[in-house]
Amino acid sequence: MCIQMALAKSFVFHVARAYRTCKSGSQFLSKYPSERKLFMKYLDSINLVGIRDVNEHGFDSGNPARGGRSKDSTPSMHSYEVEDMKISVDETSLMIFDGKILIGAVNLYDVYPQVERMRQLAGYASLSGNQFGNP
Fold this sequence. Notes:
By secondary structure, this protein is an alpha+beta fold. It has 4 helices and 5 strands. The protein has one domain (2-74, 107-132). The strands form 2 sheets. It has a 3-stranded antiparallel sheet. Strands 1-2 form a two-stranded antiparallel ribbon. α1 (2-24) packs across α3 (48-57) and α2 packs antiparallel against α4.
């Protein structure tokens, strides 16, 4: 289960990075403005970036004003009914069932098609151009 959790957290981290690229690097994704906005709107609606924040900063100590954990970075429980069982999952937990990959309030199984669509459209487009010295 350790490998699956590492892969899930890596996926969440990279999706959060793609979100930031879409948000602040729109000039590099100018061919797909409506798709970029839909992608960002979807990720905002499920708060995937929040799950990344909990996993990266959820156990930081100290005052939020000085770089410590904020209330938004605190893990919280989310309840599901799966296969006639009631389960609770926080943002640092992973539960895998047929058709469900639960981490916090999100089913990663549902997130993947959205991410794959954006990857197919934009791929590494944001890494091209003069930003990295390429012609």
